[in-house]
Specification:
By secondary structure, the chain is of the alpha/beta class. The chain is built from 11 helices and 18 strands. The chain has a domain of about 170 residues: Carbamate kinase. The longest helix is centred in the N-terminal third of the chain and has 25 residues. Bound molecules: aspartic acid and magnesium ion.
Length: about 400
């Protein structure tokens, strides 16, 4: 008998029929002789709608009340899932995050899990129940409802799996697993059977958003192996786990793309201490996330600094920089470029193989694609290209690293 945690995302519980599909799957797993804990998201679109509603009654909704509101999305799903299970002759019992013993800090709308006391979960399991837990929510020490940040049901599932020492954690979603590239862009992309936590994290931060990054980080920290798979079929999914020696033999595990990026360049800034601190201080103060940063070799005491960010943040960044620019001296100029995108190759095999960047650049050159910017990490090489060329770039790189399906 195994103890299994299954998480079902918003689309997998998106309507009554799909909730019944989940109930069936869960009961099947139980009938095979397992104990099953189910973590569910809000039905797709529900959380967005609740946020919209809050803005219709308030210009700046109070964050404590926001959490009370958002937690109702998942609460609806747990009750409906339990009802469906009971209707099929099974024993289902729902638990809110608080009832499941999930304690968090008090940072409303993006709380962190402090600890989990899963006594109620164990008791219901021992009684033969399927336990259905509301994802994305918890409770502070003084009893306030909290939520864990968008996509937080993944975190609930991983953290619960760690707390109850589950044998298996399955993340059910609307795709078959993690692919070597977005199959809508690269038709020859294939499902990756297994990858390491670090590769999963790099893929996520480079645009392949299958799961919330925080949950993957948590899984890595606590050694929770999990499988990403499709709730609508029985295909095996992708296993995400600790690194094993054989994994490094594959140099590039996947190619990921991120659209709608923008580049900011500040020309002719004085090359002296404090300049970068001032520029990026202003960006940080405006709560803008940046990605690549490049500073040129200086010439005549002047240098250029470029960085990239999400295209959506560009107006905010320009506004934030206007003021600083004027304090940096005469002739300092701000230039921006939108309509660019990022293509990254990811793989832990890069640590032990050379020539990865060269191979990527050659593939792009052969496809006549110009590289605007480059950055690397230990297990990633990323380039910025024109947005109009991102699909061709991804295909060229995917082929160059031998990732195309062979059939
Ligand atoms: N319902 C929440 C959201 O949409 C949490 C989740 O789905 O994981 O962000
Ligand atoms: Mg979701």
């Amino acid at each position: 008998m195994a103890l299994i945690v299954q998480k079902y995302g918003g689309t997998s519980v998106g309507n009554p029929e799909r909730i019944r599909n989940v109930a069936r799957r869960v009961l099947e797993t139980q009938r095979e002789g397992n104990q099953v804990v189910v973590v569910v998201s809000a039905m797709s679109g529900v959380t967005d709608n609740l946020i919209k509603l809050s803005k219709e009654v308030s210009r700046e909704p109070n964050e404590r009340e926001m959490d009370v509101l958002l937690a109702t999305g998942e609460q609806t799903t747990i009750a409906l899932t339990a009802m469906a299970i009971n209707d099929m002759g099974g024993k289902g019992a729902s638990l809110t995050g608080a009832q499941a013993g999930i304690s968090t800090d008090g940072v409303h709308t993006k709380a962190r899990i402090a600890n989990i006391t899963p006594d109620a979960v164990h008791k219901l399991l021992d009684d033969g129940h399927v336990v259905i837990i509301a994802g994305f929510q918890g409770q502070t020490a003084d009893g306030n409802i909290t939520t864990l940040g968008r996509g937080g049901s993944d975190l609930t599932a991983i953290a619960m799996a760690a707390a109850i020492k589950a044998d298996l954690c399955q993340i059910f979603t609307d795709v078959d697993g993690v692919y070597t590239c977005d199959p809508r862009v690269v038709k020859t992309a294939t499902k990756i059977p297994e990858l390491s936590y670090d590769e999963m994290l790099e893929m996520a931060s480079s645009g392949s958003k299958v799961m919330q990054s925080r949950s993957v980080e948590f899984a890595k920290k606590f050694g929770v192996r999990f499988e990403v798979r499709n709730s609508m079929n029985n295909n095996p999914g992708t296993i995400v786990k600790e690194e094993t020696p054989g994994m490094e033999s594959v140099v590039v595990r996947g190619v990921s793309l991120e659209r709608n990026q923008a580049k900011v360049t500040i020309d002719d800034v004085p090359d002296r201490p404090g300049v970068s601190a001032a520029i990026f201080g202003a960006i940080a103060k405006a709560n803008i996330m940046i990605d690549m940063i490049v500073q040129n070799v200086s010439f005549d005491g002047l240098t250029d600094i470029s960085f990239t960010l999400s295209g959506a943040d560009l107006p905010k960044a320009e506004a934030a920089l206007k003021e600083v620019i004027s304090t940096l001296g005469e002739g300092v100029e701000l230039r921006v470029q939108s309509g660019i995108a990022k293509c990254s190759v990811v793989g832990i095999g890069m640590r032990s193989h050379s020539g990865v960047a060269a191979k990527m650049f050659k593939a792009l050159a052969d496809a006549s694609i110009n590289i605007i910017m480059i950055s690397t990490s230990e297990i990633k090489v990323a380039v910025i290209v024109e947005e109009s060329e991102i699909e061709a770039a991804s295909r060229a790189v995917h082929t160059a690293f031998g990732l195309d399906a062979t059939a």
